[in-house]
């Protein structure tokens, strides 16, 4: 016969949240600020492929989000200070850069040809 011990899921959830925060994984934050243009930006058709390069020239890491077809942020990656990432995308797909607290630093749309965005 199997015996089960009572597990306190609140403690497990709290531990997982602490791990996610310490690992730099984005979590929902009611205090984070959105850019004004973010509220009206959504991805549209993905017909014209291109790429956009983000160069983080700040002294702290930044987060890169894609705004999906309903305008919701989808986390892609963390860009360390003095690093860059080139992202394949489509002309009509907006990207959001935030600080590590998810405060919007800018909303960027790719161009028909490769674009470079410097994050200052």
TrEMBL record:
Organism: Trichormus variabilis N2B
UniProt KW Acyltransferase keyword: no
The protein, known as: von Hippel-Lindau disease tumour suppressor beta domain-containing protein
Keyword annotations: Signal
Keyword tRNA-binding: no
Domain von Hippel-Lindau disease tumour suppressor beta, chain residue ranges per copy: 43-102
Name of one Pfam family that matches: VHL
Domain of life: Bacteria
Signal peptide: 1-30
């Amino acid at each position: 016969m199997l015996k089960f011990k009572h597990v306190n899921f609140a403690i497990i959830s709290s531990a997982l949240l602490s791990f996610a925060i310490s690992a730099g994984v984005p979590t929902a934050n009611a205090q984070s600020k959105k850019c004004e243009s973010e509220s009206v930006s959504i991805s549209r058709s993905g017909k014209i492929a291109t790429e956009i390069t983000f160069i983080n020239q700040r002294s702290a890491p930044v987060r890169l989000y894609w705004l999906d077809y309903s305008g919701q942020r989808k986390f892609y990656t963390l860009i360390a200070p003095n690093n860059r990432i080139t992202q394949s995308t489509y002309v009509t797909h907006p990207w959001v850069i935030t600080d590590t607290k998810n405060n919007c630093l800018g909303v960027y749309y790719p161009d028909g040809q490769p674009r470079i965005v410097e994050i200052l």
